Every structure is written in C-alpha cells, then in structure tokens.
Amino acid sequence: MPEPAEPLSEYRTGSDPRTLRDALGCFATGVTVVTCLDGNGQPAGLTANSFTSVSLDPPLLLVCVAKNAASAAALIRASHFAVNVLQTHQQPASIRFAAKGEDRFGATPWSPGEFGPPVLRDSLGVFECGAHAVHEGGDHHIVVGEVLRASFDAGLDPLLYFRGRYRRLHFD
C-alpha cells in the first residue's frame, strides 16, 4: 500500500508585494459588489472584498476601493452607495464587476434601492449607506458609509474568497 502523500505546504516571510499579497490571501473574506449612481445618474460598481463593520453606534462600515478602479471616482463622490454581499450563485456577478470593459449592470439583475444606489437582486445581504467619509489609504480609498438600511436573506450561503480562489462553506 502506498504511503500517503505529504501535504503541500509553503512557508515564506518578507515584505515584498507578492509575499504580502499571498499572506493577505490567507484571510478568507466574503465578496461584495459596491454600487452607486455616477454624476450622470448611471449605475457604477465594482467587486470588493475589503469590507468591514466599523461601528454599531453610529452604524458605520467601510470598503476599500482601488484608486485606479474605473468606478472609484463615482464611488468617492456619491452621496449614497450600496454594499451587496454576494451569495454562492452570484460568482458570475463578482467576476463581471471585477473585469474591465464589461457591461456590468446589463447582465446583472438589479433595481434602485430605497436611497437610490443599485441593489443586486438575490444578494445575501445589502447595506444601503449615506456617504460618511473618504480617507486616503495608499493605493486605495477607504470609503466609510453610514448604514441607512440593512437587509439579508438568512437562507443563503456566502460567496467566499480564499488564497486567490472562490470558495464555499462546507459543513459536515
């Protein structure tokens, strides 16, 4: 009988961009699509996994948006935005909103939220926010929003991202 294969493992240390990116990829995250209306009233949005709660009182959250993202200018100027937390069946939307040159909203079912920003249909959760602050964070904008409305569907499972790949929850 053959011996079991050794598990693949790798240990690296350093502060170079590749090591940093790979180490940060060890933190499993949910996947969101952040949406708003641009200055012309057209929907804009992008995929982001840098998202977190900041405060419950007042209710604040933040998302980090790459400064070179096509929708960055619209998001930092918007009076309202939505964070759409994606569920497992929305992986195509995540890919679409991360790609350049895609018709993001033409192929993704959405409707205007209560405060105006596009809300993606069938999302696991949605946070509609009023703009609270924008901070500089290296090559990203840190966009802080005041949560005006939150909704979720407890019957759905989250789309996860870990070590550069989409993942799903596994329960035994």
* Overall outline: globular
Number of domains: 1
CATH C-level class is Mainly Beta
Which strand order do you get reading across the main beta sheet? 3-2-6-9-10-5-4
Keywords: Oxidoreductase
Protein name: NADH-FMN oxidoreductase
InterPro entries: Flavin_Rdtase-like_dom (IPR002563), NADH-dep_flavin_reductase (IPR050268), Split_barrel_FMN-bd (IPR012349)
GO molecular function: FMN binding; riboflavin reductase (NADPH) activity
Describe the structure.
The protein contains three helices and twelve strands, in the order H-E-E-E-E-E-H-E-H-E-E-E-E-E-E. It is mainly beta and 172 residues long. The chain has one domain (29-162): Pnp Oxidase, Chain A. The chain has a seven-stranded antiparallel β-sheet with strand order 3-2-6-9-10-5-4. A three-stranded antiparallel β-sheet has the order 1-11-12, with no helix packed on it. The model has no long low-confidence stretch (mean pLDDT 92).
Quick overview:
The protein has helices at residues 17-24, 72-77, 91-98, and strands at residues 29-30, 32-37, 43-48, 51-56, 59-66, 80-85, 110-112, 118-120, 125-137, 140-152, 160-162, 165-167.
List the helices and strands and how they pair.
Blueprint (H helix, E strand, L loop, with lengths): L16 H8 L4 E2 L1 E6 L5 E6 L2 E6 L2 E8 L5 H6 L2 E6 L5 H8 L11 E3 L5 E3 L4 E13 L2 E13 L7 E3 L2 E3 L5
Antiparallel strand pairs: 1-11, 2-3, 2-6, 4-5, 5-10, 6-9, 7-8, 9-10, 11-12
